[in-house]
Each structure stands twice: as C-alpha cells, then as structure tokens.
Design brief:
The protein is built from ten helices and seven strands. The protein is an alpha/beta fold and 232 residues long. The protein has a seven-stranded mixed β-sheet with strand order 3-2-1-4-5-7-6, with helices on both faces. Mean pLDDT is 86; it is low at 2-16.
Length: 232
C-alpha cells in the first residue's frame, strides 16, 4: 500500500468516525447480508472497528474476531475484548495470509485500494471459505472527477465483479448507489479529506480546489459500491 495512503488514514483517524457516513452504511449492508452464526471472523481493513461494532449491534454471534489494518492509529481506536485480536498489516502483502484462518472473511470499504484485487481475492480464499465484501467502484465521485477532468483511481464495477467471480461461487452480487449533498464546495472538500474516502488517490492541486470552492458548481458526491458474498 502506498505510504501516502497509510499516512492519510493515520492522520485522519480521530475524525474518521464522524465523517465516514457512507462507510457506516456499507458496514450495515454487509452485516445484514451475513448469517446469524458466523464462527470465527476475519476483518480486512478493520479500521477503528465499524464492522465489529455493527456485528454486535445486529446481534450476530461469533466466537472470535481478528481485525487487520495498516493504520496503527485506527487500530488503537478499535474496541478491545478477550475474543478480539488486532493485527497491523497490509492485505496487499501475500505473506499476511499464511497464518490467518477463519470461518468468515469480511472486508468493507477497503479493498478498492487493493494493488492487485484478483490476487487479494485469491489470498482471501486461503484464509476462509466464506467471503463477504463491500467495495467502492469507479462511479464514486463521478461528477467531481468529470468536473476536474481526472480519472477515478479505483476499478470499475465490472472489473471488481469479474475478479470476485474468478475465485468465489456467488451468493449475492448487488450494486449500491448513494449521494450526499453539501452546502458548499468547502464543506464537500472537508468531507473528502476527513472521511478517508479519497484514500490518498490522485491529489487535487490548490488551483483546482480554489476554483471548485469559488465556482461552487459541485455540491454533492456520488458513491457506487458492490456487495459481494460467496464461497470459494
């Protein structure tokens, strides 16, 4: 994982929960797709514990929970318990999966930043038979990207779906779209910075940011994501 992305998530760890509205929605959608009894759970890109908290809130039963994230500051905020193990690690590193075993592997709002998504999916199948993923796709920030004339740094839905189907027998494959309205460009850009959804992708120069705020043409953000569940 590029160093700048890790630095961004560490830097904005404390504000992440406040601003990550769509990530919370993704956690709710993903957890609602799971059976009530999960056994052991492995969460890739666990962050500050949104999935763990949502599993408890929704009444899901699990014997143990292992959370993995590359941002140490995020892990420090994750809820602690006797059956919770937290590991600082990068899912782009194949060696991470060698000693990881669980009944269910979960990842929400993280794998869009995989450097080689098919390879990550393949490694996931080595650690758990059941996989459940909520992954942002290139329709996210569509209007903003078109306005600025830049390409989305994340993969399109077709690529993500094909990569998943290469390694999993699907149970659910469903696209979701969301939108957030802002009062002005400055508020929108603050959200992008604090929420982590930009993931350290293509940075916007000062002139572009200033123009966006002054012209105030874009006051909303679109989000596109896939829910993918299945067995390997």
């Amino acid at each position: 994982m590029p160093k700048r992305i890790k630095e961004q998530f560490n830097r904005n760890a404390k504000s992440y929960l406040k601003y990550s509205i769509i990530q919370q929605k993704g956690a709710e959608i993903l957890c609602s797709s799971l059976p009530d009894n999960l056994g052991s759970v492995l969460d890739l890109g666990c962050g500050s514990g949104r999935i763990y908290s949502q599993l408890l809130k929704s009444g899901k039963n699990f014997s143990s929970f292992t959370g993995i994230d590359f941002a140490k500051d995020m892990l420090q905020m994750h809820p602690k318990a006797e059956n919770v193990t937290l590991i600082e690690g990068d899912f782009n590193n194949p060696g991470l999966f060698k000693n990881l075993n669980a009944d269910v592997l979960i990842s929400a709002s993280a794998l869009q930043w995989a450097e080689d998504l098919p390879a990550v999916f393949e490694n996931c199948t080595k650690s758990a038979k059941i996989g459940a993923f909520f992954i942002f796709t290139s329709g996210t920030f569509n209007s903003l990207h078109r306005y600025l004339g830049v390409k989305s740094p994340i993969k399109d839905a077709g690529f993500v779906k094909d990569a998943f189907l290469k390694f999993y027998k699907p149970k659910i494959v469903k696209k979701f779209q969301f939108e957030i309205e802002f009062q002005n460009g400055a508020e929108m850009l603050r959200y992008i910075k604090k929420s982590g959804v930009s993931g350290g992708g293509q940075r916007l120069g000062y002139k572009r940011l200033k123009k966006l705020i002054e012209e105030n043409q874009i006051k909303h953000l679109e989000f596109e994501a896939l829910l993918l569940t299945g067995e390997s």
